[in-house]
Inverse folding.
């Protein structure tokens, strides 16, 4: 028979070995801990990526709002100025019709009113577009007619039917103009002269 004391000693040792092999409360075994740490790291990385994307979207949103605000401040008076253009047109037309009576007090009053209005509109960024005598530019000129003219080059604005205006750096209203073109006979003569010149140069 095994003495009782020796038997108890063997059981105590086995219990101690088993307890040493088992993880303590709150402690994760090495195998399980490795998987859990990898999973936690992946979740942390995913959360960090989501935060970065959200931050970038928010920064882009702030930039868009700031740009829209700047545009609103810069062009806030656009509609008002556009609605005032017919008033300017009417005053200019009144002066044209009264060209023979410039000494009249009424004409002088209209002229002064027009001058003050132009000054006020220019202060807010309204600038007349130069048209007559300038090369035709479809960005700021709208051609209403083509007139045969031999005294000027082709595609030159020879008449202005309605004045155009720029509002700061954009076209508020294009100028309505007539553009020059040469007579067919003159054009053919020019083409013949050009061909003759090229033939002489080649010879």
């Amino acid at each position: 028979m095994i003495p009782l004391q020796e038997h108890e000693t063997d059981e105590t040792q086995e219990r101690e070995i088993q307890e040493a092999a088992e993880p303590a409360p709150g402690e994760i075994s090495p195998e399980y801990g490795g998987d859990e740490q990898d999973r936690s790291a992946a979740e942390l990385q995913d959360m960090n990526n989501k935060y970065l994307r959200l931050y970038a979207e928010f920064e882009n949103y702030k930039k868009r709002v700031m740009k829209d605000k700047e545009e609103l401040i810069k062009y806030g008076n656009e509609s008002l100025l556009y609605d005032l253009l017919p008033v300017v047109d009417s005053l200019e037309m009144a002066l044209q019709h009264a060209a023979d009576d410039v000494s009249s007090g009424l004409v002088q009053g209209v002229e002064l009113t027009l001058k003050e209005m132009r000054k006020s509109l220019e202060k807010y960024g309204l600038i007349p577009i130069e048209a007559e005598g300038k090369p035709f530019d479809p960005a700021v000129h709208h051609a209403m007619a083509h007139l045969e003219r031999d005294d000027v080059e082709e595609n030159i604005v020879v008449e202005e039917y309605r004045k155009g205006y720029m509002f700061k750096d954009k076209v508020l209203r294009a100028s309505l103009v007539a553009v020059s073109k040469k007579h067919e006979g003159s054009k053919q003569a020019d083409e013949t002269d050009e061909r003759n010149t090229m033939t002489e140069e080649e010879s």
User: Anything to note?
Assistant: The helical segments are 4-21, 30-74, 78-97, 105-123, 184-202.
